[in-house]
Amino acid sequence: MPAEEDPIVIVSYDVRWPEEFRGLAATLRRALGDRALRIDHVGSTAVPELDAKDVIDVQISVAGLDPWENFRVPLERIGYIFDASNDDRTQRFFREPLGHRRTHVHVRAAGSFDEQLNLLFRDFLRAHPVAARGYALEKRALAERYRDDREAYVRAKQPTVWRLLIEAHEWSQAVGWSPPSRDA
Questions:
Q1: Where residue 6 falls among pLDDT bands split at 50, 70, 90?
Q2: pTM check: above 0.85
Q3: How far apart are CA 124 and CA 171, in angstroms?
């Protein structure tokens, strides 16, 4: 079964995820050098105690998405697979090398809305374990309902994600949030 058609399965938080990210990030840092302005662990596996799909999401921040060969060539050299079918114009998307643990690499422009939004969402959930638990429950319920329909799962999560993003924005204003130092 192709990876895109894998059933959606939410698993309990795995304490190994941060260490797995650090290993991936070190490899990415060696390959990209200073082309990577930041390398961050994002997504649900980056939030302690948050249930998630067993996929490490890595966000690499670069000065700009063009010329994309600046990061594509080094990533492909170490086995990452460019997803040309990704139509999100705010990022370039890569998958793990064949035979490696499931990893999604999102390359985004430093300072862009999407880069900042991913960091804010992660940091809000890290700071609000009750919100993270509620999000986990919602993801589990939706994964059961839409196990074999990834698009429906993503659509069904949107109202919850948007509600949490509004809360994250309010929290960011109250605490004066700004992006922390990079993870790697």
A1: confident
A2: yes
A3: 7
